[in-house]
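[scheduler] slot 2 assigned
[scheduler] job type: sequence-to-structure, two independent chains
[scheduler] chain ordering preserved from manifest
[runner] begin chain α
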Amino acid sequence: MNGKPVKRSISKNILDGFSLVPEDRRTEGFFPVLSIEKNIAIASYDKLARFGVVSRKKEIELANKAIKDYDIRPPIKSMPVGNLSGGNQQKVVLSRWLTRDLKVLLLDEPTAGIDVGVKGELYQFLEELSQTGVIIIMVSSDLGELTSVADRILVMHDGRFFEEFTHENVTQTAVLLAASGVHTEEGKAL
């Protein structure tokens, strides 16, 4: 990253601005019995604590700001995340990282299992984030999603990067052909 090797330490990578929104949010993305507030704050305790003691005031402020900024519904910071809709669960997982100073956001199937309205909101958050210079790397099996939101698409075939497309020259057909091992005129062989 910026000419330097990426560390192998997860905690150091988080401090350096890396984040991950996993594909399976229910088992890997949040703690269902913990509140919205705790789920948002958990990735920022290093910034919310002084001498190892978490500031309750800062924790509440962080949660209130995230709930407002990302329109998490219902806006009840004490509600367990497991009780929210899939889209609002995803907003909590995403807002956990958006409250940090991000440089790279890794998203794995970010809109799986959420309704169309929330998808639009998430795309808007991602667009705004990319405009601030954050690198967003998204894995998605939804071709419509990829061709509409990605600036660049890398297609893998047989476990290797096979072809690259830009937003201007991508079609769903070309991506499907590349995924099957067929080079297209639209893509650039890798």
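[runner] end chain α
[runner] begin chain β
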Amino acid sequence: MVFNFYNRLTARQQSIYRQSDDIKYLTLKDIERLHNESSTLETLLIEENLIEIEMVCQTIADDIVSQIKSPRLKVQVLSVRPSDDWGELHGLYLPEDDGKPAKIQVWMRTAKNKKVVAFKSFLRTLLHELCHHLDYEHFGFPETFHTEGFYSRESSLFKQIRS
């Protein structure tokens, strides 16, 4: 399935888009540790412990990229989401740049009320940004698009981790 902006892409971008759309799953072999880490993350979000949340998010990311055999990246958990008239930023993927490793940034509090984000939303944001990393580093795409396949890969990771 293609989204409306597909027709505005170049032929090269459309090819990348279709390749991404065709990949629906990411399969993890060892999910027990990820189950435990995600449960720990859920507890830490309730406790609002930013430093430990970041450590557990890093562990989750490390475990996933290790299993998929992709380069490691840095995870940074920040407090309040940035916002403007366009809305709130939930997460951000920053590709490798000038020898600095790729980085994921996720925010644990909403912009408006500064309340801790719901666990499922927070974990999905982490996995979403991780999928951008995998698009570049595992699949070798020169660009990463929000295709149906992209969202399916994100969901496949979530279901494995939380089942």
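[runner] end chain β
[qc] chain β: Residues 24-162 form one domain.
[scheduler] slot 2 released
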